[in-house]
Amino acid sequence: QVQLVESGGGLVPPGGSLRLSCVASGRIFSIYDMGWYRQAPGKQRQRELVAVIRTDGSTNYADSSKGRFTISRDNAKNTGYLQMNSLKLEDTGVYYCNLHHPSLVDYWGQGTQVTVSS
Question: What is the Rg, in whole angstroms, of the alpha carbon atoms belonging to the chain?
Answer without folding.
Answer: 13
